[in-house]
Amino acid sequence: MSFFNIAGIGRDELSRIREISVVLAGYGFGEIVANIPFPGRLILPKTRKEHFGKTHAERLRMAIEEMGTAYVKFGQFLSSRPDLIPAEYINEFKKLRDDASPLDFSEIEGVFKEEWGDNWRDNFALVLEKPIGSASIAQVHKARLADGNEVALKVLRPGIRDQIKGDLGIMMFLAKFIEKHFESLRFFRPVQLAEEFSRNLKRETDFQREALVIRKIKENHRDMEDRVLIPGIVGNLSTGKIMVMEYVDGLPLDKVDISPEEKRRLARLAAEVMVKQVLDDGLFHADPHPGNLLYTFDSRLSYLDFGMVGRLSPKMKNELIDLLLAAHSNQPEMLLQQVLYLGDVQQEVDRNTLVREIMEISDRHLSVSLEDISIGRALYDIFDLIRVYEITVHPAYTVVARAIMTAEGTLRQLDPKINVLEEIASPIKKLFFRRYSPDYISINARMLAKDIYRSLTNMPDQMGHIMRKLKTGQLKMEFRHVGLESMMKTMDGVSNRIAFSLVISAIIIGSSLLISLDVGPTIMGVQAFGFIGFILALIFGSWLLFSILKSKKY
Predict the structure, then answer these.
(1) pLDDT < 70: residue spans in the chain
(2) Which pLDDT does position 248 carry in this prediction?
């Protein structure tokens, strides 16, 4: 049984892996895919001449663009993970775009019929066949319902789920292969990363889930409806492949022609909404670029496209509040303490060195002129820094950092001199002090008492279970030697060389005995089988010597 059969890879997936391998090799990554044990022979192309002189990050970004939708989405996903990949790769992956040519309306109509039946037009007075937006996963059409209300129809591209499902399976296979065969890349946790991305992409192609998120966010902004518009969902028509939502008439923030005072008002409103969504609601728009924010004709701020959202638990919100307040007070020691508190430290860290590097980040992004202050960029650089120290943080924090950085860019298009850190400091402090209100303390005390009570009541059963296993000899303890992997590989290599040397020695001895007997056919007067044996011993011995010299371990 082949390696691919064991991994559950079928013929179609194998063909796709070959295709991806050829693309990667063409961009100079042949050494990675060369280790994949393809059945038969796979001839990989050499790096194309036009890619000479380009950086690894540039070539990888170009390869991803050629590999298709799922891989472009994966590159965009990685661009929000400064805790895992270096800044040069993040900057390149930010250039990835998932724009796509619009599909012919006849193909979109097929989805309408599949979801609503042949009489789907009865629901509408008008559907514009020309899309108002098109991307790799969906395209959007404007329509008017039978009752006269204008709506936007977000339609999933036909066949995109099956295509993505196949590529996600291949990604998981490649992640397991990399984690098993490339020890230097295990810190990046390829399998965990692939699983996380798979969950995110599946959510993005489930419009029923997105509709639920939009409803929840609209409910969260109920008290701000006079200033903030979240489009409503037409529930009786929305399905997993089609989302019908209120059509918002307005202009993207980067195209509005309004007074400077109105722009400043919008900038402060967007900053207020960002703090509310991230730190109060714990459910936030993760890609607030100017194209996703509209200025409506009744002077409200509207948010569109909730395919990318972030979530924070109450504990994570509190940790992030402490982190942002430490950044606002510009105290590197406190900032480091908060980073270590919310991160998973894999090894001992030199705190003094880390504090100095955080001070440099603070000086670069927080202790500068108003127009250059960037809390999002500071968080990004901190997460990039701790990656070097093998400190991992929950992915939600990096999504927050990316969202804040994107929002800062949007705010500065409206008001170049806005001090984002000061704008968000006041509402953050209110949330901080709310933690110490009697109601909040009472709720947390009840939750803590409940947890303590549950632990105490479960303890006798758990201790009894352990004692029974100990009494019957079923209690097992697993020990793992950490750091001996390289030694085991070395021992394997040494034992293989010894075994190979013994085989060569046996061939030489056997050949010598055959020659001394002087029986059977001869070659140039020498016993034939003995002569062939010496030739084989010479070839094997030369190969063994060459491998030893090549490894430079002698």
Answers:
(1) 1-10, 33-51, 184, 187, 346-347, 370-371, 478-490, 492, 518-519, 550-554
(2) 94
DSSP state at residue 279: I
Q: Which of 275, 213, 209, 218 is closest to 241 using CA atoms?
A: 209
Cα torsion for 198, 201, 205, 210, to the nearest 10°?
110
Q: Say how far apart CA 144 and CA 121 lie, in whole Å.
A: 11
3-class DSSP state of 95: coil
Q: What is the reported pLDDT for 230?
A: 96
Closest CA to 262 of 296, 234, 288: 296
Quick one: pLDDT at residue 123?
93
The DSSP 8-state label assigned to residue 99 in this structure reads B
Q: How many residues does the chain have?
A: 554
Q: Look at residue 484 in the predicted model and tell me its pLDDT.
A: 58
Residue 456 class from Cβ within 10 Å (0-12 exposed, 13-18 middle, 19+ buried)? exposed
Contact between 72 and 61 (Cβ < 8 Å) = no
Give the pLDDT confidence score for residue 481 in this predicted structure. 61
Are the CB atoms for 339 and 391 separated by under 8 Å? Answer: yes
Which residue is it, tokens 């196949």?
A: 166
Q: Would you state the pLDDT for residue 223? A: 94
Question: Cα(88)–Cα(384) distance, rounded to whole angstroms?
Answer: 11
DSSP label at 103?
P
- Cβ distance 353 to 321 under 8 Å? no
- What does the block give as tokens for 302? 């509207």
Q: Let me know: does 181 contact 33? Beta carbons within 8 Å.
A: no
Q: Is the dihedral of CA 404, 397, 385, 179 positive or negative?
A: negative
The pLDDT value recorded for residue 552 is 60
Q: Is 29 helix (H, G, I), strand (E, B) or coil?
A: coil
Name the E strands within 69-212: 124-127, 133-134, 138-145, 150-156
Q: Is 136 helix (H, G, I), strand (E, B) or coil?
A: coil
The C-alpha atoms of residue 400 and residue 394 are separated, in whole angstroms, by 11
Give pTM, 2 decimals: 0.72
Correct CATH for 99-158+206-247 of 3.30.70.980, 3.40.50.300, 3.30.565.10, 3.30.200.20: 3.30.200.20
* Domain residue spans of the chain: 3-96+163-191, 99-158+206-247, 253-435, 439-475, 485-551
Q: 523 - beta bridge partners?
A: 526
To which H or E segment does residue 205 belong? none
Strand pairing category for 228-229 and 301-303? parallel
- Any residues with CB less than 8 A from the CB of 181 and at least 6 apart, and which? 35
> Within a 13 Å sphere around the CA of 535, how many CA atoms are in the beta-carbon half?
8
How far the first Cα of the chain sits from its last, in Å, is 37
Which residues partner with 283 through β-bridges? 311
Determine how β-strand 293-296 pairs with β-strand 138-145: unpaired
As a whole number of angstroms, the distance between CA 189 and CA 200 comes to 17
